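Thread: Newbie trying to understand structure tokens

Hi all, I'm a second-year student working on a class project, and my supervisor (Dr. K.) asked me to get a predicted structure for one chain before our next meeting. I've only ever worked with sequences, so writing a 3D structure as a token string is new to me. If someone could post the tokens and maybe explain what I'm looking at, I'd be very grateful. Here's the chain:
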Amino acid sequence: RVVTREARRAGLRVGDVVIKIDDDEVRTRAAWYLVLSDHRLGDLVRLECRRAGGVRAARIRLHPFGSR
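---
Reply by user tm_fold:
Sure, no problem. This is what the structure looks like when written as tokens:
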């Protein structure tokens, strides 16, 4: 699901599958948490998402889960 307004403004949609955060591949939930553990709230990250057979990139700022 798309949690923040910033993510929606960046063009992320429900159903997008995050495949990279910055230059790190994200294939599992554990990888997601491991990659994000290297970042702090407020950091700007580049996401690559798979949508309908294509790949889309977006830059978003990290916020606490459930905020904004």
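A couple of things are worth pointing out once you decode it. The chain has two helices and four strands. The mean pLDDT is 87. Feel free to ask follow-ups in this thread.
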